[in-house]
Automatic annotation (TrEMBL):
GO function term, MF aspect, one: RNA binding
Predominant subcellular localization, coarse grouping: nucleus
Organism field: Vitrella brassicaformis (strain CCMP3155)
GO CC, alphabetical: cytoplasmic exosome (RNase complex); nuclear exosome (RNase complex)
Lineage: Eukaryota, Sar, Alveolata, Colpodellida, Vitrellaceae
Pfam families recorded: KH_6 (PF15985), RRP40_S1 (PF21262)
Record-given protein name: K Homology domain-containing protein
Length: 195
């Protein structure tokens, strides 16, 4: 009998608080500075990453997003090196939706709320195909979620109260060594708070 995926049942990993960028990782970044045609982005790494203003699907020099300091983006790590800045892109080989359509999953994440996990390895638990916590929450609350390998989560629901409760449930499930039954009980408590 195969158990459902659960964050506490993963292989032992080194827990670190800083993200070490690797090419092709999906990350959630926060715009820290705009310099000419580039943005400086905080991805929880030792150095800020750069995101070109035309590194979005079908963006040109005249037709490009106008991101501001504090905006949140979901991006791929294009290149990473320990001695150079990390480069991000908001384009994908499998999704070709214009950045203005809002149908692509990369680019600016509007609305919602971001949470930095205590340990980077916790994000890997949520990235599995079958995440028990996300499945259980999805059964009772409609939400959008983006998880970055850099230990940052973005959640958006219809109401701010639901967003905060979903984030609290995720954080509780990841930071405490709970069994599947205890995790289900904790989620039930959060659901009761919603009503």
């Amino acid at each position: 009998m195969e158990l459902p995926f659960h964050p506490r049942r993963t292989a032992l990993q080194a827990y670190r608080r800083k993200y070490i960028p690797k090419p092709d990782d999906l990350v959630i970044g926060i715009i820290k500075q705009k310099t000419g045609e580039q943005y400086k982005v905080d991805i929880r790494a030792p150095f800020e990453a750069t995101l070109d203003s035309t590194a979005f699907e079908r963006a040109t020099k005249r037709h490009k997003p106008n991101l501001q300091v504090g905006h949140v983006v979901y991006a791929f790590v294009q290149s990473a090196h320990k001695d150079y800045e990390t480069t991000l892109v908001c384009t994908s080989v499998d999704v070709h939706k214009d950045w203005t359509s809002g149908e692509g999953y990369l680019g600016q994440l509007q609305g919602g709320y971001c949470l930095d996990l205590d340990f980077i390895a916790h994000a890997d638990c949520l990235l599995g195909d079958e995440c028990f916590v996300l499945e259980q929450l999805g059964a009772v609350v409609k939400y959008e979620v983006a998880v970055g390998r850099n230990g940052r989560i973005w959640v958006k629901t219809e109401r701010p109260k639901e967003t905060l409760l979903v984030l609290s449930a995720i954080k509780t499930a990841l930071t405490k060594a709970l069994t599947l039954e205890q995790t289900q009980a904790a989620i039930n408590i959060f659901v009761e708070r919603l009503t």
